[in-house]
Design goal:
This protein is of the alpha+beta class. Helix content is about 25%, strand content about 40%. A hairpin with a 2-residue loop joins strand 5 and strand 6. The mean pLDDT is about 95.
Length: about 130
C-alpha cells in the first residue's frame, strides 16, 4: 500500500487521470484535470479518519483556486475511503477541531511530537471501496 498504488487503483476504478504530484513538498499527493487528492495509507484500521486542519484548509483553498474538487483518500486494511472535502466542507468545519499530539513529520524515526489540530471524519461521509 503506497501512494502510487492508491493512485493506480483510483485511476483504474474511476478513470480519474490522476498524476502523482512532482513536487515532494506539495500539500497534496496527486492531481488531475478535475481533482486534487491527498492520500493517507494506514497500516491499521480506525473507524474515524483524521485530517489535519491545516492540510484541509490549504488543499481546499487550492482546489477552489484551480476550479477542482479536493478529495481526501484513506487506504487501510478495510479498504479505501474517499472523502469529497469540497462537497462536505460545511459539515466538516461545523465539527470541533481536536488538538492531537502527533509526530512532527511522517518520518517514523522522528520522535519529536507537536500539537496538530485536526478534524475527525466519520466514515459515513466517504465512499467506501473494498479492496
Amino acid at each position: 500500500m503506497t501512494e502510487e498504488s492508491t493512485i493506480e487503483l483510483l485511476n483504474k476504478k474511476f478513470e480519474l487521470g490522476l498524476i502523482k504530484a512532482e513536487d515532494k513538498y506539495s500539500s497534496f499527493d496527486a492531481e488531475s484535470s478535475n481533482f486534487i487528492v491527498e492520500i493517507k495509507n494506514r497500516r491499521k484500521y480506525y473507524p474515524t479518519k483524521v485530517i489535519e486542519a491545516l492540510k484541509l484548509f490549504t488543499n481546499y483553498q487550492k482546489s477552489q483556486l484551480k476550479d477542482k474538487e479536493f478529495l481526501y483518500v484513506v487506504e487501510d486494511p478495510k479498504g479505501v475511503w474517499i472523502f469529497n472535502i469540497s462537497k462536505n466542507i460545511k459539515e466538516i468545519v461545523a465539527t470541533p477541531v481536536k488538538a492531537m499530539m502527533q509526530p512532527r513529520t511522517t518520518d517514523f524515526s522522528c520522535k519529536d511530537k507537536i500539537i496538530k489540530y485536526s478534524y475527525l471524519l466519520k466514515e459515513n461521509l466517504a465512499y467506501h471501496l473494498e479492496v
